[in-house]
Amino acid sequence: MKSVFLFGECMVELQRVTATSLRQSFAGDVYNTGVYLKRTFSDINTHLVTAIGQDSFSQAMLQSFADEAINTDMVFKSPDKIAGLYAIQTDSQGERSFTYWRSDSAARQVMQFIDDAAISKITQADMVFFSGISLAVIKPEDRDTFWQLIKQCKQAGVSIVFDPNYRARMWQNPQQAKAQFDIAFGLADLALPGVDDFDQLYGINTVDEIIAFCQPYTINELVIKNGENGINYVINDQQQHFSITPVTNVVDTTSAGDSFNGVYLGARLSGLDINTAIKLASQAAGFVIQHKGAIAPKIEFNQFIERQKSMIK
């Protein structure tokens, strides 16, 4: 079996249902990616690398990982921290706004649990994935240790995947984020940026400018997500554009990029060509944004994605 290790944070999600009631679930960009990857490609061994607490929310979160068939051997339990939490609201166009309580979450300590046994497992993977949010969550004093691990993975032949997923409020300043992203782009074999990420952090808002920005790095596969304007990719120095059919019934854009990432990475690990991978991933993202919350209903998603997969065989 192919294996992928995803570094990041899963949080308690509270979504407003009415003015006085909330629905509780679990989500987080890297966790969401893992869910959609595993749902679509069940034969890929999918590991989440994170830390949780020992409280009841954390125990329920651990059960949700198991329910999604995500391997929990790298989910560490902090003795004194708890899981982070966020509340989400969506407007009439499906655009979301968030309120976070995560500054002291267990996931910030994850690198303190990575011992030689964990390193041995991770460096035998086929792929390691992390995001800009993953980097922001890790305590600044632990980031050097994280980069040492990623370098070990790269030297061992593991494919390194990075999605910038920039969130300004999580960084002390833009310069700090840029410094970390520079290391990430320098190590990445595959990058999955969104135009919005580059616009917010670098003031770059065109595909050509993003391609030029990434050119000095040794990124083998660059996939640029540009919303309704489609996907652009560069592989083997060849640039292509992939058009998508915009969704008319947008309910909640949460996890659009995450679901794309998960299905795309699973497709590539499964040997699908880049155009087929983008098509399947775009269809998955289009389905997800027609449902509330980061994680779409499992049965409905699985039925949908199996129909799409059957059409490409």
How would you characterize this protein structure?
- The chain is α/β, with parallel strands linked by helices and 313 residues long.
- It has 11 helices and 13 strands.
- Strands 5-4-1-8-9-10-11-12-13 form a 9-stranded mixed β-sheet, with helices on both faces.
- Strand 11 and strand 12 (231-235) form a beta hairpin.
- The two termini are 20 Å apart.
Characteristic terms for this protein:
single chain, alpha/beta, nine-stranded mixed beta sheet, four-stranded mixed beta sheet, 11 helices, 13 strands, 40% helix, 22% strand
Offer a quick outline of the entry.
The chain has 313 residues and is of the alpha/beta class. The protein has helices at 29-40, 56-67, 116-122, 132-137, 143-155, 174-187, 195-202, 207-214, 256-269, 274-288, 298-312; strands at residues 3-7, 11-18, 21-27, 45-52, 75-77, 85-90, 96-101, 127-131, 159-163, 190-191, 221-225, 231-235, 238-242.
Map the helices and strands.
Elements: E1 3-7, E2 11-18, E3 21-27, H1 29-40, E4 45-52, H2 56-67, E5 75-77, E6 85-90, E7 96-101, H3 116-122, E8 127-131, H4 132-137, H5 143-155, E9 159-163, H6 174-187, E10 190-191, H7 195-202, H8 207-214, E11 221-225, E12 231-235, E13 238-242, H9 256-269, H10 274-288, H11 298-312
Parallel strand pairs: 1-4, 1-8, 2-6, 4-5, 8-9, 9-10, 10-11
Antiparallel strand pairs: 2-3, 6-7, 11-12, 12-13
Helix pairs in contact: 1-9, 9-10, 10-11
Indicate the low-confidence ranges by residue numbers. Answer: none
Sheet-strand content, in percent, reads 15-25%
Based on CA inertia axes, which overall geometry fits?
A: globular
Residue share in helix: 25-40%
SSE pattern, N- to C-terminal: EEEHEHEEEHEHHEHEHHEEEHHH
What gyration radius follows from the Cα positions, in whole Å? 18 Å
Helix-strand makeup class: alpha/beta
Q: Note the main sheet.
A: 9 strands, mixed
Q: Give the end-to-end Cα distance, rounded to a whole number of Å.
A: 20 Å
Strand order of the largest sheet: 5-4-1-8-9-10-11-12-13
Q: Total number of β-strand segments?
A: 13
Number of helices: 11
Mean pLDDT: 94
